[in-house]
Amino acid sequence: MNMAANMMGLDNAATPMGLKAMKELQELNPDKDTASNAQILFLVLNASSVTLLPVTIFTYRAQLGAADPTDVFIPILMATYCSTLAGFAFIAAVQRIRLDAVLIAWLGGLSLLVGGLATWFMSLPPEAMAPQSALISNFLLLAVIAAFLIGALVRRVNAYEAFIEGAKDGFGIAVTIIPYLVAMLVAIGMLRASGALDVFMDAVRGGVAALGGDVAWVDALPTMLMKPLSGSGARAMMIETMQMHGADSFAGRLASIVQGSTETTFYVLAVYFGAVGIRRVRHAVAGGLVADAAGFVAAVAAGYLFFSR
After folding, report:
1. Cβ(284)–Cβ(43) under 8 Å?
2. Phi and psi at residue 282, to the nearest 5°
3. In this predicted structure, which of 91-100, 222-231, 289-298 has the lowest mean pLDDT?
4. Which of 17, 166, 214, 307 is deepest in the core (most CB within 10 A)?
5. Is 34 helix (H, G, I), strand (E, B) or coil?
6. What is the pLDDT of residues 244-263, one digit of tens each?
7. Which domain, by its residues, includes 45?
8. % residues pLDDT > 90 (the chain)
9. Contact (CB, 8 A) for 247 and 58
10. What are residue 149's phi and psi, to 5 degrees?
């Protein structure tokens, strides 16, 4: 359920189920102060957060005036898959996880699916990529909703009442994160107003230009820097980037792709391990940062592939 919530891009809705899963894994952990291999694998998969339908990002893009809020769907899918695959590969190497036939089949099948999508989109003319991405996203979103309703009908569940109960829980979670979001927005505003962030970005932009690289991606750098630390902070950076440059600008779209590429490594690590009293995290931080780096690189590559003109 935790991973399903992450796949749907429901942000903080995944946290309660993730905490429950971590507590149950802690019951199987022989050394209560040290993270077990299973807990580390779960945390890194959670932090890399493969996202199939980033509904929250679509919502913010719609609110900020994007002509087609779902046109970032395929780029996010490509970036988040690279992030998850890199995180899992790192943990598998460190923990020497045996790749049996079932695991290889899953990884191979998913890689072929994502790789096939990427290859097909690369064969399209540039002006057709974003519309096709939006079309597939809208179809999948409608298919998921239809599947929920059909499943509820088959299992004789009152879908409307279940939705209302879930919405009540979601509203409670939203209320609890509002103070953190407001504080982060104020902090970001102060950082912008002080000029420190602009000085840093100008320095990075100058360094990239001196090396002969394209500097358009630097405008999404604040979201990249904030993402491993705070989901609310990264979301605020994404919103601020879209407000400053426009939701359909290259920077606004790239910030959205970055936001959907990974989860918040240090937040997830602090909350999940802190909830069960783990103090020695072993290679969990390294695994999360490897996934973050892979996701950010893939996000920039996907952004240029789909939206650079």
Report:
1. yes
2. 55, -125
3. 222-231
4. 307
5. strand
6. 899 989 999 999 999 988 88
7. 2-307
8. 22
9. no
10. -65, -40
